[in-house]
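Hi P.,

Sorry for the delay on this. The queue was packed all week, but I finally got your sequence through. Input first:
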Amino acid sequence: MNNSLINEEKVTPETIQALFDNALIKATVDEEGDIQITTDMGTVCFVTLLQNQKMLKYLSFFSFKDKLSPEHKLSFLNELNSGVIFSRMPKENVLLSEYFLS
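Then the structure:
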């Protein structure tokens, strides 16, 4: 794959995976068609192609330190949400962040 644009009809999990592979970023496509990206530091991110909405959804999970107060967690959450990242805490010490690219 070269550095040219990818036509909309050719955007697939495999072409997205190839973009990450070309950037030397480890990426695999799972059985559901999600792309799992693993950084050198071990951080895992998932990219899902939302075909009907013509979007890419980026999803990552992080853990909070137990000693952080709920106020600090919510403050950090609000800071992330003031941009284009949508974050929430589905469990007490888990941060779930989603980013959508169209």
